[in-house]
Amino acid sequence: MRTVRLITCNDAMQAHIFQGALENEGIESLLHNENLSSLLKSCVSNISGVDIFVYEKDYERALQVLRDNQSFPEDLKCCPYCGSADITFKLRSDRRMRAACAAVLSLLVMAPPGDNHWTYKCNRCKALFDKPVSADYKREEESRI
């Protein structure tokens, strides 16, 4: 059977979580580039990302499983607190010195500086958060209440 690439994850841990979600639904998957992502952490995902492959016949079902689990970054555009889509990606104010040191050190040792110096900020409610959510997620939260 033919396999197709489903998604590229930023790291092996995220890929294993998605692979577990697929397994729970009875969808077999295969990880590619798992070891390189550990060596080149914080590099562009096209270089070091972990690809998840599924059988072609399971592709549509696998896409739906990942959508149900809020797994597509392009769908994550809203504040988890107020649901606003007016969010910005900015450097954390408490980590500016740390980010500058990481940038200088990364230039000296020719290694990526890492990505834990950044945060999202909602321009409507002024909340800071690590990861945005999809509009569907916010609607589901409100319907449960």
From TrEMBL:
Gene3D superfamilies: UreE, C-terminal domain. InterPro entries: DUF2007, N-reg_PII-like_a/b. It comes from the Bacteria. Residues 4-69 form the DUF2007 domain. This is DUF2007 domain-containing protein. It comes from Bacteroides salyersiae.
